[in-house]
Amino acid sequence: MEGIFAIWIRDMTRFFRDRARLIGSFSMPILFLLIFGGGMGGTMESLIGSSMPDAGEDFQYLQFVFPGIVSMTLLMTSIFSSLSIIEDKNFGYMKEILVSPISRVSIAVGKVLSASTIATFQGIMLFLLIPFLGINYSLTSLLLVIPFMFLLACALSSFGLLIASFLRSTQGFQLIVQILVMPMIFLSGALFPINNMPGWMDVVVKLNPVTYGVDVMKKIMIDVESLSPMIRDAMGLNLQLFGTTLTVAMEIAFIFTFTVILILFATLSFRRANA
Amino acid sequence: MNNIIEVRELNKTYKDKTAVDSIDFDVKEGEIFGFLGPNGAGKSTTINMICTMLAPTSGSITINGFDGNKDRRDVRKSIGIIFQENTLDEKLTAKENLMLHCRFYNVPRSKRKERIQEVLMIVDLVDEKENRVETFSGGMKRRLEIARGLLHYPKVLFLDEPTVGLDPQTRAHIWEYILRLKEKEGITMFLTTHYLDEAEISDRIAIMDHGKIIAMDSPENLKNTLGGDIIELSTQDNEKAMLEIQAKAPEAEVTSKEDIIYLKVASSDAFISEFIKNLEVPLTRLNIRKPTLNDVFLSFTGRNIASTEPDKQ
Q1: Pick from A5-14, B26-35, B94-103, B197-206: least confident
Q2: I need a labelling partner for B312 at 20 to 30 A (CA). Which of A192, B23, B84, B228 fits?
Q3: Mutate which of B50, B63, B84, B87 to test chain A, going by most A C-beta atoms within 10 A?
Q4: Within a domain: residue B142?
Q5: Residues B88, B237 within the same domain
Q6: Residues B252, B258, B261, CA angle at the centre, nearest 5°?
Q7: pLDDT 10s digits, A134-167
Q8: Each residue of B138-164: pLDDT tens digit?
Q9: Which of B311, B273, B296, B129 is nearest to B217 (CA)?
Q10: Where does the chain cross the membrane (chain A) (predicted)?
Q11: Residue A10 and residue B92: Cβ atoms within 8 Å?
Q12: Residue B300's Cα: distance from chain center in Å?
């Protein structure tokens, strides 16, 4: 336990000490909020609104995209934070950790927890923008979504750690972002409703674990019950798998299982890479 | 004295080559054990195996009574390592680095502050403890690493090229600290260095070459095996001079390297006056000295260790 805590506290200290990283990490989500909220909002709303003459006015794109952008931040931060393990290897600190008596499992778990904490923290920081965006979510829903954000971040950090054990240099970073992270965001329903997609894309979306994370985030944050069924549909919130409409509970159970499996794989592959 | 490290028939082979070839040795409790050898001799591979960082192909390693293959965790608790390269977290302060180490090694919570103070005092860094490591000089970082290696009171401290890349003055300082440690704490030290003068502080030295230990003894005894004194000389015509020496003084062992001729004789005092009087080729340089570890190394390997580079990992 002490070992896990040591790995965690080190990453926390480093994170809060690195001002540039702290500021830099907000620029991306804010940029996305500006582009998608301000730039695309109008177009999306008129597009979707025009298809629903009765209820079109009620569709607020920003309200829809905000949880998606929080999820995107979680994904990016989780993966990048756990990739910092490669940096530790290159700068030698990993050796200090590896020759110490703490177990390989503790190292991996500590890394996953620190990356998840950082990611969740950044997600929460985005909440501070809510009043300025002219959208509103209830305080309860925001408080409820935080534990789920942490769970999702754990899954994504484990995924990052898994990738990291196959990478030797930080140069692989860019590649990972391009071939994995970006598609995972775009094909998750984070930024636009996943309706009427070509068949193959629909399969990819359903296979993408981020899809379910985003869906739960939206369902918790957006007051779904008060929305008319048409808007719910337009927002792509009636996610179906094998003909069944998924409930939040089912999705959380799925993500929880997925997290456990990923942590397991990540620790195993970390142990193999650092026997 | 008890053996704190016992290595038996240790082997490490990679696909195409043998890095460590069936070596055996013991390190006694409380001694400074020096490991010498040129680049690629297998020193680092051996150390990495002893430190549980690399699995041996075959053979056994026992440290502090623990099996290096089975009881890795206990072995890790028993050793402290100062790596060749810097392994500090430079974004953290000296104290934070030490505190993390306490956590990794499960130093009792109540003793952490006291121990940190204690090791910082040994390496004279008490005043720097709140500063970030990135502001430290090379020598200070090394000292902090030594301090960190001592925090959990290891039975054996491994020092892999502890002074590489430091200026001579700092090097001298680092050795002062290391010697102070040996005197005060009686800690066993296992060191590798390619600075031969530094290896002299060892109680015993093992010379490694091509994956094998080719000599192992105290520096004194190793030098005595060579016997006699060494005369280094340069002349206006070395080739001619060598022929002349071989003819006139058959008792001297003659070797040459670059533009220096080395003569090994039983006693330089008796030899030199007669020799200089008789040598026809004019001398340009003359130096008489006792054998050094470099001569030992040269005689065992046929190479000069000074011309070899430190191991890179």
Answers
A1: B197-206
A2: B23
A3: B87
A4: yes
A5: no
A6: 20
A7: 788 888 889 989 999 999 999 999 988 888 888 7
A8: 889 989 999 999 899 899 999 988 887
A9: B296
A10: 20-41, 61-86, 107-130, 142-163, 175-194, 248-270
A11: yes
A12: 17
